[in-house]
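Checklist before submission:
- one chain only
- standard amino acids only
- sequence pasted in full

Submission:
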Amino acid sequence: MSASSQPVPWRTRLGTWQARLAARRLAGAIRDKLPATHGITPTPTFAGEALRWHLNGDTLEVELHRDPCNELGTTALGELEKLVEYIQHGAGGARAVILWSSVKRGFCAGADLRELYEGLIAHHAGGDRTPMKQLAIAHEVRGFIDRIHAVMDALDTAPLTVVAAVHGFCFGGGFELALTADVIIAEKSARFAFPELRLGLVPGFGGIPRLERDVGNAVVRDLLMTGRSMNAKRANEVGLVSQVVARGEGLTVARKVAEQAARFDPETTRRAKRFAKPLPVERLRREKDLFIEMMASPVVVKALRKFVESTDVRPYLP
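Returned file contents:
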């Protein structure tokens, strides 16, 4: 009998079964706490805790408005899922989408690190680091990452033109959200960064594969490995943003871009976008796996604790 055909000991089979059962129970409990999105009738106007949107002619304007800087956690994710559902139902006939922020600090500072930290601390309470517990944590993280990737991919491939108007902080998950847009308009105050390495992580919402699609590898590695921010002028020089505009003019210019894009035949726009902006499916899958693997490191909890306890007025910066 070959080694591959040896029967698995019953204790091993039982342990594996128990771990999977615990993971499923945990995932079910988490799903019960998250906002439900299926079965909701999409509406042309929406006002939530993190997002607001309305139709302005042929453009769907989506406003990020949650202080302190539009952090992406379960609340924002649930509302983004509603937005995607509305777009997939035709977006009320809209021909373009604008993503913009009314928060003074910027477009989006990234993932909700405080929520992430609290979740990890709750799981590590009592010092339980058994393989079963680690598997359950990985299962929960996978569920969230799969959801956020589904939202980002849907915006990335939406059959209409998506424009992001960016000012101030555009870091981490916020940068990844902006990268789903077809056109990025940056005010002079905009700064782009991937500070995730300071947390013991890589960007996990699809940022590196999408950035690789738009700029050279030297720029990608600089942003990833140093965590330094890139200003709007430099972002324009490397081809990340299409226009740099004065402070406070981002939304105005984005509206003009959206108006121009809406003039074309919808099917022509859809086909042109699919050709010019292919989704890097395999790289996105590998990024998810790496992010989930790295989340198991104690370095992450330590780094998140430092962030949460920071008294720095700009804790987002490396």
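Reviewer check: The mean pLDDT is 85.
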